[in-house]
């Protein structure tokens, strides 16, 4: 009886929702518009829900939303970029005084569902529409939505740890959390089902009108993207659960889905990359100190694509800013290197071919079957990155066995100077230890996936590479260790205030208090092998 009531309630909610939002494309109010029957035949009642998924996984507009979703957390914590602006009197994320009003947007863009926001609500709608329409082949849209849901929500989990995922679609349990181990296993399950389930739909063109990526609605390519994502997540859990990682990784390496052969790029016609606005127009983000010392130390030609020369010529060719230093006014560092032509585009990148080669290089280092040779994958990853950005002389770069990262010299005050923590080199060292070879792989992956600071921060926390400089000013009140650095973001107040019982349960899933100093499940803090 209880289940019957639950499903009656679910059906009523769906009917009410459809009555309220069925005019998504103004079809219900326009007598000359498309009929509901035609709409259904064209799958628009399902496909229209994909647009928010493409928009919200990495937010494009407005630029300030991206700044809060990624720019003032992952992008700066990764060592990629630093804001020269002393927001809130320099008491902000960069100095470990985590700003809840900023970080709330990471959560809103995943869960809100209003004003075009959200990931989880729209995936649920797609599933409900498929179930209600009962149209043949509708399950393909569920598989595709689940791939996008994993892409979005692994990033959210990699910020907070426990998230609302496996129980979200049931209205009776939608507020309940999974611990991070459970949610990662759910990610793998969703990807398995999608990769296997979509095979029979290869060649089907029904997703073409709704696909905003360069894949053009090709189901075979979406299977390859899902499989590439599976390899990324398998590597992510390699330190905490080596058996799970190996199983999922070898599954990806053996899959007939293959891997992406072109970068996974989402088209945003009419909207430039938000970092172009944040950096080029607002001057609110600059080159990070780590990017300066590594790219300049390596004589890496990608620096010309990634960054601009400083407005102040006395600073030299390229100059970065160290995160978490004492900044009293924007004018101190605003003349440093801004972000370059890499973000002069009406598109955003979810995954690169270069990253896949580096994932395979690490898989080979861990002796996973089907991964191939470590060095061959490592070299191929660098080649793919150079090709992506149109940079020459890759052969010379690959054989450079002397260049190492520079030490950092602050342009304003010597207290911010820092020594880089290793002499990692470019040419792959076949005789190096596993840790040394992994540092080479991750350092080059870090360079290659720029400007995706969210993914770069996750890899730094997992491996300790590259060597991100600790903050100079730590306003966390002891919650975040300066040397261990920030490991996560605490659950945001908007969620705490509306879902406190479930948040308290989620806090019990953590390895410590609900603050930025507590490591995530996959962040073991131990050696990588």
How is this structure best described in words?
This protein has 23 helices and four strands. It has a two-stranded antiparallel ribbon with strand order 1-3. The protein is an all-alpha fold and 529 residues long. The longest helix has 22 residues, at 139-160. Helix 4 (50-56) runs parallel beside helix 10 (139-160) and helix 20 runs antiparallel to helix 21 (453-463). The chain is 47% helix and 2% strand. The radius of gyration is 23 Å and the shape is globular. Residues 1-41 have low confidence and may be disordered.
List keywords for this structure.
single chain, 529 residues, mainly alpha, two-stranded antiparallel sheet, 47% helix, 2% strand, disordered N terminus
Strand residues, percent? under 5%
Cα shape: globular
Count of strand segments: 4
- Contiguous low-pLDDT stretches (5 residues minimum) are 1-41
Q: Radius of gyration over alpha carbons?
A: 23 Å
Strand line-up across the major sheet: 1-3
Helix content range of the residues, please? 40-55%
Structural class by SSE content: mainly alpha
Enumerate how many helices there are, as a single number.
23
Task: Describe what is shown at a glance.
By secondary structure, the protein is mainly alpha-helical.
Mind sketching the topology for me?
Layout: H1 2-21, H2 36-41, H3 44-47, H4 50-56, H5 63-71, H6 74-77, E1 81-82, H7 87-90, H8 100-111, H9 120-133, H10 139-160, H11 180-197, H12 219-236, H13 242-254, E2 264-267, H14 274-281, E3 286-287, H15 289-297, H16 303-306, E4 347-351, H17 353-365, H18 374-389, H19 394-398, H20 434-448, H21 453-463, H22 493-498, H23 500-508
Antiparallel strand pairs: 1-3, 2-4
């Amino acid at each position: 009886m209880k289940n019957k009531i639950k499903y009656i309630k679910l059906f009523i909610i769906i009917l009410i929702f459809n009555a309220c939002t069925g005019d998504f494309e103004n079809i219900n109010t326009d007598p000359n518009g498309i009929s509901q029957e035609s709409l259904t035949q064209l799958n628009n009642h399902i496909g229209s829900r994909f647009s928010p998924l493409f928009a919200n996984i990495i937010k494009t507009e407005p630029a300030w939303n991206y700044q809060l979703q990624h720019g003032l957390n992952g992008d700066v914590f990764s060592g990629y970029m630093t804001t020269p602006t002393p927001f809130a009197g320099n008491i902000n994320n960069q100095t470990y005084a985590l700003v809840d009003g900023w970080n709330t947007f990471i959560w809103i863009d995943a869960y809100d569902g209003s004003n075009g926001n959200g990931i989880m609500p729209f995936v649920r709608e797609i599933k409900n529409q498929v179930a209600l329409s009962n149209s043949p082949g509708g399950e393909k849209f569920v598989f595709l939505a689940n791939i996008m849901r994993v892409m979005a929500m692994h990033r959210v989990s990699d910020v907070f740890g426990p998230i609302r995922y496996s129980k979200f679609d049931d209205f009776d349990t939608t507020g309940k959390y999974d611990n991070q181990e459970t949610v990662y296993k759910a990610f793998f399950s969703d990807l398995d089902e999608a990769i296997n389930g979509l095979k029979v739909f290869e060649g089907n063109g029904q997703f073409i009108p709704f696909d905003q990526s360069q894949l053009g609605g090709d189901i075979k390519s979406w299977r390859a993207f899902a499989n590439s994502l599976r390899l990324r997540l398998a590597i992510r859990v390699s330190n905490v659960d080596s058996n799970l990682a190996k199983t999922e990784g070898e599954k990806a390496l053996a899959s007939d889905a293959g891997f992406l052969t072109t970068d996974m790029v989402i088209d945003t016609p009419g909207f430039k990359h938000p970092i172009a606005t944040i950096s080029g127009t607002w001057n609110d983000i600059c080159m990070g100190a780590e990017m300066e010392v590594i790219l300049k130390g390596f004589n890496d030609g990608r620096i010309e694509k990634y960054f601009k020369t400083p407005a102040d010529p006395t600073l030299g060719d390229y100059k970065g800013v160290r995160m978490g230093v004492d900044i009293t006014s924007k004018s101190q560092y605003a003349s440093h290197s801004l972000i370059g032509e890499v973000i002069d585009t009406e598109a955003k990148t979810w995954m690169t071919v270069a990253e896949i080669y580096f994932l395979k290089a690490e898989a080979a280092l861990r002796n996973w079957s089907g991964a191939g040779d470590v060095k061959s994958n490592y070299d191929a990853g660098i080649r793919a990155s150079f090709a992506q950005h149109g940079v020459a002389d890759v052969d010379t770069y690959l054989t450079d066995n002397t260049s190492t990262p520079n030490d950092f010299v602050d342009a304003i005050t010597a207290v911010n100077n820092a020594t880089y923590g290793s002499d990692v080199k470019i040419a792959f060292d076949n005789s190096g230890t596993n840790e040394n070879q992994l540092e080479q792989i991750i350092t080059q992956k870090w360079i290659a996936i720029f400007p995706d600071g969210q993914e770069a921060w996750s890899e730094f926390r997992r491996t300790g590479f590259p060597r991100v400089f600790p903050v100079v000013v730590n306003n966390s009140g002891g919650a975040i260790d300066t040397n261990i650095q920030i490991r996560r973001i605490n659950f945001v107040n908007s969620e705490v205030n509306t879902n406190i019982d479930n948040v308290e349960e989620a806090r019990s899933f953590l390895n410590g208090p609900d603050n930025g100093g507590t490591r995530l499940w996959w962040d073991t803090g131990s050696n990588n092998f």
